[in-house]
Amino acid sequence: MRNMKFYIPFLSALLLQMLTCKAWANERSLDEAINQVVAPWTERVFQLIFFSPVTVAGLSIPLILLWLVGAGVFLTIYFRFINLRLFGLAIRTVRGKYSKPDDPGEITHFQALTAALSATVGLGNIAGVAIAISKGGPGAAFWMVIIGILGMTTKFAECTLGVRYRDIDQNGKVHGGPMKYLTKGLAECGWVKLGKILGISFAILCIGASLGGGNMFQINQACSQFIEISGGENSLLAEYRWVFGAVLSLLVGVVIIGGIRRIAHVTSRLVPLMALIYTVGAFVVIFQHLDAVPSALQLIISQAFTPDAYVGGLIGALLVGIQRGTFSNEAGIGSAPIAHSAVKTSKPASEGVVALIEPFVDTVVICMMTALVIVLTGNYGESLSGADGIELTSQSFGSVISWFPFVLFVAVTLFALSTMISWSYYGQQAWNTIFGNNRRADLSYQFLFCFCIVIGSALSLGAVTDFSDGMLLAMCFPNLIGVYFLLPVVRTELNAFISHSEAIDGKDAN
Question: Which has the closest alpha carbon to 132: 322, 365, 394, 363?
C-alpha cells in the first residue's frame, strides 16, 4: 500500500497535464480530444489483425477466425470430446478432491478458476452479446454458444501446459503462461529460436490485450451504463467520461499492487457476487416471458442457419458470433493459462480439467441468458437506431424491471473491476517477460494500466472494440502454434491425472 504514494501523485499530475493540453484550450472536451488522437490508431490495428484472405457470399472471412475455430474443432476431436466426457471430473477437481494443501503453487483450484473467470465473465458476456445480436441478428448468439463448447477443449490444453511449464521462484511466486511453455516447451522439442520468437511475440500482444480488451473495453461499457442511468446525454459525466475512469483507476491500482494472492482473494468474492446479481435479474426477465422462451430459442437457432437472417445472413451471423464468442471466453488466446498456472497442484492436467468449466459458464450459460433477455423483450431491433452495446442490454432489462438498470450498473461495475484486476496480472506477467521481474518494472506497468483506464472511459465504443478485438485475438497465433507442437505432452499429463483421480476415487469407494 505504501507504493500508492508514488502512484497517486503521478496519475494526478498526468491528468492535470491532459486538462490543460492544447485540445482543451481549443474548446474541445477532453473525451473528444482523446478520441481524435487514439481512434485512427485503433482502426489501423484492427485492419492489420483482421486480414481477410477469403470472401464468402460477399463477406470477408478473417484468417484469425478460421485459425481459432479450426483449433477448437481439431482439439475437441483429438481429445475425443473431453469437454463433455470429463465435465463431472472437473467439478470434483475444483472442489480440491485430487490436490493437497502443500502442493506447489500459490492459490487453490477454486481461486484459480475464479481469477480466470473474472477475466472472461465480463462485459463480453453482457455488452458483447448485445453487439453480436445488433450486428448479426439473434442467430449470432447461437454461434457464440457453439464457440464456447469448442473452446472448452482448447482451454483444457493450454491450461495444462501453463501448469506443466511454469516457474516458481525462491519466494514461492509463480510465473506461468504461454510465455513459459512456448520457450521451455519448444526448447524441449529442439526449436529454441522458434520458442523465443513466439514467446516474445505473445508477451507483446498480451500487453496490448491487457490494455485493450482487459481494460479499456471494460471501463468504457461500465461508464456507458453509468451515463445511461444518470440521465443519458444530460448526465453530468456525458462529456466528462474520463472522470469516471480516473476514479476506477484508483480502485484498481489499490488491488493490483498486491499481486496474484490479493487478486485471487478479491475475485473469489467478486465473481460469485456479480454472477448472482446478474443471474437473478436475467431469470426474473425470463420467467416473466416464460411462455415465449421456446419461440425465442427457435428464433435464435433458425436465424443462425437462415441465409437471409437479419443482418448479413448466415455468414454474417456466424462471423459475428465467432468473433464475439472468442472475445467472451478467450479460449485459444493464451490468457487463462497465466492465472491457472498459479494453482496448487502436482498434476498439471488437473487444472486443465478445471479450465473446462470456464467457457461453459461464461459463454454457454451467461451469454445465452443475456441473449434470451434481449430477444424475449424484443429490443434487439432498436440497437440499429440508437442503443449501443451495454445500453441495449440495459434497455432490455429496464423494459421489464424499471429499476434494474441501476442494479445492472452495480453488476457491470463489478464485472469490469474483476476483469481489469485479473487482466492486469496477465499483462504484468507478459511485461516482466520482456522487462524483467523487478519492482520498477512492476510499478511502470501498473501505472500504464491504470492510465489506460482513464483513456478507455473516454473513447467511443467502435475505437475500443477495434483495438480490443485486434490485440486479444492476435494472441492466438503464437499461442496455438505452441499448443499444436506440445499436444503429446498434454496427452501424457492427461493420462497421468486420470490414473491419479481413479486411484483416489477407488479408495473412496472402498
Answer: 322
For the stretch 195-248, pLDDT in tens is 999 999 999 888 888 887 778 877 887 787 778 777 766 766 667 777 788 888
Averaged pLDDT for residues 22-27: 44
Residue type for 265, please?
Answer: H
DSSP 426-490: HHHHHHHHHH-SSHHHHHHHHHHHHHHHHHHHHS-HHHHHHHHHHHHHHTHHHHHHHHHHTHHHH
Contacts of 422 (CB under 8 A, 6+ apart): 115, 116, 118, 119, 214, 263, 267, 339
Cα separation, 465 vs 458, whole angstroms: 13
Find out whether 358 and 117 touch, Cβ atoms under 8 Å. yes
Contact 133, 374 (CB under 8 A): yes
Whole-angstrom distance, CA of residue 445 vs CA of residue 438: 11
Supply the CATH classification number for the domain 31-504: 1.20.1740.10
Q: How far apart are the first and last CA of the chain?
A: 51
Higher pLDDT, 114 or 370: 370
pTM of the complete model beyond 0.90: no
User: Hey, what's the cell of 112?
Assistant: 484459480
CB crowding 127-166: b at 16 or more within 10 Å, else e? bbbbbbbbbbbbbbbbbbbbbbbbbbbbbbbbbbbbbbbb
Residue in the structure block whose three cell numbers are 503521478: 10
How many Å apart are CA 272 and CA 274, to the nearest integer?
A: 6
pLDDT at 471 over 80: no
The three-state DSSP-derived secondary structure of 335-381 is CHHHHHCCECCCCHHHHHHHCCHHHHHHHHHHHHHHHHHHHHCCCHH
